[in-house]
Write a structure and sequence with these properties.
It is a single chain. By secondary structure, the protein is mainly α. It has 17 helices and 3 strands. Strand 1 and strand 2 form a beta hairpin. Helix 7 packs antiparallel against helix 8, helix 9 crosses helix 17 and helix 12 runs antiparallel to helix 17. The radius of gyration is 30 Å and the shape is extended. It starts with a strand and ends with a helix.
Amino acid sequence: MTAVEFRVKVLDDFSGVSSSVIDAVNEADARRQIALRNLRVISLEPVRSLRRLWQTPQLQVAVFSQQLVSLLDAGLSLVEALEALAQKESNSATQQIIQRILLRLYEGQTLATAIAEHPATFPDLYVAAVRASEKSGALREALTRYIAYQQQADTLRKTLVNACIYPAVLLVAGLLVTLFLLGYVVPRFSSIYEDVGTDLPFASRLLLQWGQLLDAHVGLVVTALVAALVGAGYALSRPALRATVGAWIARIPAVGRQLHVYQLARLYRTAGMLIRGGIPAVSALRMSAGVVRASSRTAYAAATRAVTEGQSLGEAMERHGLTTPVAARMLRVGERSGNMGEMMERIADFCDEELARWVAVVTRLIEPILMIVIGLIIGVIVVLMYFPIFQLAGSIR
């Protein structure tokens, strides 16, 4: 269930009336948390989404884990480390989350149970890693593995985002220049040609008519562009449409293969982290299902079922198309050596390197191609604007 923020005003016998924001699954859970603190509720209401836009971000799991590992290495107990983090935290929302975790630990609950009450902050993979570490007593190692997992995932994500920034800037710049030419420069040229009264070539006349149309309906054009951007943003926020667009893009041979490699990198890194944390392979596969794309979930479910029935993990993944030739060999080696978790993480590293090389090559190709296309579009517009002048000069000679 998704956590919801509630703004509460309470009465304390010692400090009087105070207000704060708490994170709870529902209103009943919020009231239970307040009752455990021996406070009386004066008012309780959910935080509206518009208010939440202005709030500072909540706890960052990777930073929290890194700080917790450092304190545990320094010799502090888990409770002492969390108390230190709560005292030094300046963000009230983050401080409240840590204090609620401490409250559960004071009650005798485990850390995994405490953080599981905050699904909006701690993902299921994090909770599972902590729960597995509690059985083996290796909390520090589990947190370290999750930090490394998150750093690798963030590195891959940043690589893909950075590769898209420059092409996106080029496209936006080219679009703005084209709109400026069509909406401002072209109409001025059309008025000049009307005064001259010369016959214009068909292409130039068509361009000037487009410019006059944009100039006469500037407000409508701007409104349509804004509406199109808002509509596109809203449509892409819909999971069903994103899945449809992703399936359409995946049909492109070269792109589809790299999307498959990206999916395998996330899948094997997630499953490898869980297996190294002490979680059985079948459970790790089931918990990793969330990182699999919708188009591959049927095959992944079949592979997981085959492993549950006793089939080799490498054979099951290879039979259902969830490996590469190199990954299939590495899985077989991992099964023979009994070191499947580490081998899965190596597969993820190999996939990351392959994807990074492909992105670098494609980026070097796309950037000059985009510049050539944008230059041609702008050049054609300029030539069509000046072509009647060239024609007039030729007739004068």
